[in-house]
Write a sequence for this structure.
């Protein structure tokens, strides 16, 4: 992929020494990185390596035991809960692996997108419906499906709808947890293509957790490899995948090539 991220002097997100324990078990330990505007960071690792724990801590769903998270020069862990929730509704977005976790299944497709606009203050019904219509088009959902409920959609369509619902408010930072997991290979490819276009066009900063190296190869500028809760290697995606330095990354890469 094109490796031109929009650069800026200041990281949008700075993470330092982030640690989360579950009793005596390590969820993630001493994780640190900078994420710049327009940059996509992939986090890979085997099951249990700490990817979900880390993403949950970053997105504010879990409180880390140690460390610091600075977003746009603001100390996220010191923020009042109301302020963090406001960020989650406006400047941040979270795409779940299972679209059911990120959609309201009893509400129409248009409603799913429109209610996010209302949550950030939009009041004009005609304008909201028009923007919802526009976003459904951007995620390749036909205009005549606007009044259908997500349950009437295929898995791929549901995931595209979840993406529209998340992006309609114009977030700057998007957390994605295995967004292509559980989908057929051809559906995955189409979704990845769509995501890549949206990320580029909107200049989004993204943190994407996946166990699929093909996903990070296509989407991520930089890659972080986790094992046992710790970061064992990080760098430019092509560099890490083509010339892995850590023995664990070498196994991860070679096991995929053998498939
Ligand atoms: N709620 C919990 N209570 C206790 N231990 C947990 C909990 N959630 C995760 N862990 C442990 O923390 C470690 C990291 O798990 P985590 O789910 O973050 O890994 P992961 O890389 O996201 O795995 P997967 O790809 O399977 O989701 C594992 O040892 C796991 O058993």
């Amino acid at each position: 992929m094109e490796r031109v991220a929009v650069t800026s002097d200041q990281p949008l997100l700075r993470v330092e020494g982030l640690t989360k324990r579950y009793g005596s078990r390590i969820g993630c330990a001493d994780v640190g990185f900078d994420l710049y505007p327009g940059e996509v960071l992939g986090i890979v690792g085997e099951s249990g390596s700490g990817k979900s724990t880390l993403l949950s801590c970053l997105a504010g769903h879990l409180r880390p035991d140690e460390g610091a998270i600075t977003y746009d020069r603001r100390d996220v862990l010191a923020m009042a809960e109301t302020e963090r929730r406001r960020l989650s509704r406006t400047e941040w977005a979270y795409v779940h692996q299972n679209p059911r976790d990120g959609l309201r299944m009893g509400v129409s497709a248009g409603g799913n997108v429109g209610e996010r606009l209302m949550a950030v203050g939009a009041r004009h019904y005609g304008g909201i419906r028009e923007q919802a219509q526009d976003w459904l088009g951007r995620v390749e959902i036909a205009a005549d499906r606007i009044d259908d409920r997500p349950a009437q959609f295929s898995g791929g369509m549901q995931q595209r709808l979840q993406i529209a619902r998340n992006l309609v408010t114009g977030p700057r930072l998007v957390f994605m947890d295995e967004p292509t997991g559980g989908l057929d290979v051809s559906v995955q490819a189409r979704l990845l293509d769509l995501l890549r276009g949206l990320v580029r066009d909107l200049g989004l900063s993204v943190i994407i957790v996946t166990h699929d190296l093909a996903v990070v190869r296509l989407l991520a500028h930089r890659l972080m490899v986790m094992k046992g809760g710790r970061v064992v290697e990080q760098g430019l995606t092509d560099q890490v995948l083509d010339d892995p330095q850590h023995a664990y990354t070498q196994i991860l890469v070679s096991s995929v090539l053998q498939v």
Remarks:
- The two ends are 22 Å apart (CA to CA).
- Residues 22, 25, 27, 45, 47-53, 211, 229 surround adenosine-5'-triphosphate (CB under 6 Å).
- Residues 103-170 form one domain.
